[in-house]
């Protein structure tokens, strides 16, 4: 085997190990975010898978018994370095303190392209709508 092949194999091995370690940290971060948001009420979770270089997102939203959104966090990005952050609006639409159905109607009135982009948010709101 040539040295070039061994070096290439070593590089791929290191990248694989970094990705694996990053995945473990992301899972732990996800679990913590679900617990934090769960303190605010019933939880709805949605996701949009990213493609090669376009980022996806995972969305965790909470609502009270009356169907008002009480909190939320999202993780956006393409790498294992992405972390959850608080969410209070979606594409200039304020969501905190508003009724789940009202926000869902507003997001569903967007163009199909925008709806596809915000698919994770819509999924989380639909999950909450079923609980409210």
UniProtKB/TrEMBL annotation:
Taxonomy, superkingdom: Bacteria
Pfam families associated with the record: GutM (PF06923)
Protein name: Glucitol operon activator protein (GutM)
């Amino acid at each position: 085997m040539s040295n070039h092949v061994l070096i290439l194999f070593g590089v791929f091995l290191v990248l694989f190990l970094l990705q694996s370690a990053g995945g473990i940290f992301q899972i732990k971060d996800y679990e913590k975010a679900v617990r934090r948001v769960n303190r605010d009420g019933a939880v709805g979770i949605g996701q949009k898978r990213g493609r090669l270089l376009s980022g996806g997102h995972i969305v965790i939203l909470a609502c009270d018994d009356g169907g008002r959104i009480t909190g939320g966090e999202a993780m956006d990005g393409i790498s294992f370095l992405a972390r959850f952050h608080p969410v209070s609006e979606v594409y200039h639409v304020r969501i905190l303190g508003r009724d789940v159905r009202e926000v869902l109607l507003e997001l569903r009135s967007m163009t199909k392209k925008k709806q596809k982009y915000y698919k994770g948010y819509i999924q989380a709101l639909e999950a909450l709508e079923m609980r409210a």
